[in-house]
Amino acid sequence: MKPDALPKWKDLPPIEGQPQGFAWGLFGQDGVKDQLGTLNFLTPEVVLRARDEIKIGMCVSLNWGLENLAEPTMGRSTLKHELVDWRNKPGFSFYSWDDEISFNTQSSRQWDGLRHWGNTHTGFYYNGLHHNDLIQSNQLGIEKLDEIAKDRGIEFLPGDILLVRVGWTKWYDKHDDSDRSKYITNAYVWAGIKGCEETLEWLWDHHFAAIASDNNGVEVVPMDNAWRLHDVLLTDWGMPMGEMWDLEDLAKERKKQGRWTFFLTSSPLDLKGGSASPPNALAII
């Protein structure tokens, strides 16, 4: 629904048992409850209009440091950050650090989501969801690069971010714990980009800014120890590697539109001294 088609606040449809001014049910379609609220105002037309605000190509960070608030309000916990040295773990011979991060999302810069706050008097959240109903579990689950690019009409340009979908998260979402343990945790085998001299030459000569995939590591596993992409991309080149990205919806949308390029935005955690971060990535098409 476009903003100019919306009723005035005083004309919002009444909700039984609630005072005037609720937008519950306003955006839902075909009996499916809306989960976006006023984000529905961000129509394709609005996004395209916002694109015209880009004049000089400058990026300005709006992210206050996660560690800045020394004493969060209401007794909330502060950020806890620990670096794990894999070199010190028995049976592992590579050099690598992991982040283990624990923080309350209310303890620094944030978006308050629609399940953050319910009505003080009734316990109902947006669209009639009650406080007691909120807790539920949800799981989200390269070789022929030139051939694929040619088939899709893709021209790689310097500074591009390469996304490679191999179906890892799709497989993971469709299988139970037994299969996940058998084929991933214990077998340690999955599809990915082949580590070899030709791959490294191809990636460097295209001058990609970064690379990401929907699998657990970008490169094929088991890896060729002589040509580990992590060794070269991260250590030698300083090229970020994105792992376990959800590319399913993007693939469907790109196939439907017949276009395979898009505007990508990613806002990693503003964690001083961190070694990795959720990508907080969006494809804007």
TrEMBL record:
GO biological process: L-tryptophan catabolic process to kynurenine
Alphabetical list of Gene3D superfamilies matching this protein: Putative cyclase
Molecular function (Gene Ontology), one example: arylformamidase activity
SUPFAM superfamilies: Putative cyclase
InterPro entries hit by this protein: KFase/CYL, KFase_sf
Family the entry assigns: Belongs to the Cyclase 1 superfamily.
Protein name, per record: Cyclase
Species whose genome carries this gene: Clonostachys chloroleuca
